[in-house]
Specification:
One of its GO terms (cellular component) is centriolar satellite. Pfam families: DDE_Tnp_4. Its cofactor is a divalent metal cation. By secondary structure, the protein is α/β, with parallel strands linked by helices. It is 46% helix and 9% strand. It has helices spanning 10-15, 32-39, 43-57, 69-82, 87-93, 97-113, 115-118, 125-139, 199-205, 207-213, 244-270, 285-304, 334-347, and strands at 144-154, 173-180, 186-194, 221-223, 234-235. β2 and β3 (186-194) form a beta hairpin. α3 (43-57) crosses α4 (69-82), α4 packs across α6 and α6 (97-113) crosses α12 (285-304). The longest helix has 27 residues, at 244-270. The protein is globular and about 65 Å long.
Length: 349
């Protein structure tokens, strides 16, 4: 006599008969407003990510029903933009919180693998000149090829003994170095530096510093705030301006440097996993670094798809550890000081 065997549907047990299961959730079944409110991005953007990352997210699996690339991307976007593995987020696409975590890991690594495709510095002279022209048109600051600054992202304590990630605010964080253009597109991103390092130390040890210390780009420089040392390739504001030319230089510097401050506010408001409002990233420094980089990749892709950097709702002023705000670094580079003096004499007198 044959014995009937009942096949249990795990999704049915978890969520009930009326719930969308892994293979039933379709983007076409929901409105644009729903996608924006739940996942922070419009339909066409999500479809692009499915096409871009689909091959990486369709790797062989031991499971009888692999989670589709579409569902994995929605799960990751939900985490990036909300900052938590909410039960309702997983319920919406029919997966558990444990599966949500695996999806975030898969999508993060797929985006990190493609970081150099979307985050890179211009290689040709025509593009470099275009950067200078665009920045000059903003506030009259010549020679600028990018604005640089650091941003802290809170992470869980790696272990009780490791104090290298504790910033002066007493929180564990990663100090992330970024350079952007006038649109807010990120051209350099380094997300792996421990929070105890001050901005100037991060820059000194960065690959960016190694590239530009060689003096490859004459009459070109980045703009950095007073937490950095003046360099021949990095112009900083004067601590105490005295002459009209020095005041005009500082005003132009501030107006130009504000581009990256707006970019940081956009990153924080669009990717709430970075702003600390839902707590620190509950991952190791390495995995947290990858999540930050993945959000930066998405930021640049969104710009390529016409999602303006200033269109995201802005939250209040960024809260950064106090050491990063107004530490005035005195110049030890006489040649850099000469270049800044010549710049003020030529363009701001």
């Amino acid at each position: 006599m044959a014995i009937p065997i009942t096949v249990l549907d795990c999704d049915l047990l978890l969520y009930g008969r009326g719930h969308r299961t892994l293979d039933r959730f379709k983007l076409d079944d929901v409105t644009d407003e729903y996608l924006m409110s739940m996942y922070g991005f419009p339909r066409h953007f999500i479809y692009y990510l499915v096409e871009l990352l689909g091959a990486s997210l369709s790797r062989p699996t031991q499971r009888s029903r692999a989670i589709s690339p579409e569902t994995q991307i929605l799960a990751a976007l939900g985490f990036y933009t909300s900052g938590s593995f909410q039960t309702r987020m997983g319920d919406a696409i029919g997966i558990s919180q444990a599966s949500m975590s695996r999806c975030v890991a898969n999508v993060t690594e797929a985006l990190v693998e493609r970081a150099s495709q979307f985050i890179h510095f211009p290689a040709d002279e025509a593009s470099m000149q275009a950067l200078k022209d665009e920045f000059y048109g903003l506030a009259g600051m010549p020679g600028v090829i990018g604005v640089v600054d650091c941003i802290h992202v809170a992470i869980k304590a790696p272990n009780a003994e490791d104090l290298s990630y504790v910033n002066r605010k007493g929180l564990h964080s990663l100090n992330c170095l970024m350079v952007c253009d006038i649109r807010g597109a990120l051209m350099t991103v380094e997300t792996n530096w421990p929070g105890s390092l001050q901005d100037y130390a991060v820059l000194q040890q960065s690959s960016l510093s190694s590239q530009f210390e060689a003096g490859m780009h004459k009459d070109s420089w980045f703009l950095g705030d007073s937490s950095f040392f003046l360099r021949t390739w990095l112009m900083t504001p004067l601590h105490i301006p005295e002459t009209p030319a020095e005041y005009r230089y500082n005003m132009a510097h501030s107006a130009t440097h504000s581009v990256i401050e707006k970019t940081f506010r956009t990153l924080y408001s669009r990717f709430r996993c970075l702003d600390g409002s839902k707590g620190a990233l509950q991952y190791s420094p390495e995995k947290s670094s990858h999540i930050i980089l993945a959000c930066c990749v998405l930021h640049n892709i969104s710009l390529e798809h016409g999602m303006d950097v200033w269109s995201s709702p802005m939250t209040g002023p960024m809260e950064q550890p106090p050491e990063e705000e107004y530490e005035h670094m005195e110049s030890l580079d006489l040649e850099a000081d000469r270049i800044r003096q010549e710049l003020m004499l030529t363009h701001f007198s």
